[in-house]
Design brief:
27 strands; 3 domains; Tumour Suppressor Smad4
Length: 318
């Protein structure tokens, strides 16, 4: 597992592949509620097989009592000491830096941690209630209720329900992300049609899968999906390689939308939930249409159409 140890609370802080630290609730992974801490203070990420830290704050980050240069990445090692904002305060020690691990962390107290492996049953082999497995066809991990056969897709940092409580899925591995970036056939077999008003105040979305159309109505989070669709279309038109098309940093998307990061994350959650809920209407779970990769997101679909006002803006197939 990859984690830091909070020296004050003596608690483990499990690291996502792209992990943010700061003061702003709902928009960072680890909250340090101190006035000296910036809303977004630091980024810890797994890149090129190494865990790295980057200072993006006002008051700085110290690594082993040495202040880091802002916006430069520094490689972490086990037992490194990290101080946020003030040297000797808000201190964390690097406990482990595994570069290939997946786990579920219960959101109830006391915390429980389950290491995720393929064909893993919980709570145990004698009384299996859920199974965790890797769907190689679409290259996603799922947790499935063995009693109802309902399944939930696992996304880095996402929340799933099992065994009467909520669990956060943490993916600290480059392997899965590299597969997603390099698999040019990993495109969801469905089509999305956006119908956006001329002033772009209202966005309606419909999805066609297996020759059946689903009307998702007009929702504010559909505009987020529309922007992601436009970015992917633009990349295709500019000749960007298929596996690299459409990826956008969450921070950039929040800026494009003119909203705070926590609001953008809520929109992203609502979009995923609506896509997942389509399973109740007989469609497959389409929550994996929204992919994540080291703090980036993209819309993954093989057929995108955009109608603005009464005119076709574009239609692209991948």
């Amino acid at each position: 597992m990859a984690y830091l140890i909070d020296e004050q609370k003596l608690e483990k802080v499990y690291l996502k592949s792209y992990h943010t630290v700061g003061r702003q609730k709902l928009s960072v992974d680890t909250i340090i509620d101190k006035p000296t801490i910036s809303r977004h203070h630091a980024i810890i990420e797994l890149a090129d097989g190494k865990w790295q830290i980057r200072d993006v704050s006002t008051n700085g980050v110290w690594l082993n009592d040495k202040k880091l240069d802002k916006n430069l990445s520094y490689t972490l090692a086990v037992n490194d000491k990290i101080d946020f904002a003030v040297a000797g305060e808000n201190s964390y020690v690097v406990g482990d830096l595994d570069t290939n691990c997946r786990y579920l962390i219960s959101q109830s107290i006391p915390r429980q941690v389950i290491e995720v492996t393929d064909q893993h049953v919980i709570p145990n082999d004698d009384e299996p209630s859920f199974i965790i497995y890797h769907d190689k066809i679409i290259n996603y991990w799922f947790i499935e209720d063995l009693n109802t056969n309902d399944r939930q897709a696992l996304f880095d940092g996402g929340i799933v329900k099992a065994l009467g409580t909520q669990w956060q899925y943490i993916c600290a591995t480059e392997h899965q992300s590299t597969e997603i970036m390099n698999n040019e056939h990993n495109i969801a077999p469905c089509s999305l049609m956006f119908n956006v008003s001329q002033d772009e105040e209202n966005t309606q979305l419909s999805i066609n899968v297996d020759n059946k159309e689903y009307d998702l109505g007009t929702r504010s989070h559909h505009y987020l999906l529309l922007l992601l669709a436009r970015h992917r279309i633009e990349d295709k038109e500019n000749g960007v390689e298929l596996s690299h098309q459409g990826w956008q940093y969450r921070e950039h998307m929040a800026k494009d939308l003119g909203i705070q990061m926590n609001h953008m994350n809520i929109m992203l959650h609502r979009a995923r939930k609506q896509l997942s809920d389509l399973a109740e209407q007989g469609a497959p779970d389409l929550s994996f249409l929204l992919e994540t990769y080291f703090g980036k997101i993209r819309l993954n679909c093989q057929d995108l159409s955009i109608i603005k006002g009464a005119h076709l803006e574009t239609r692209v197939t991948f």
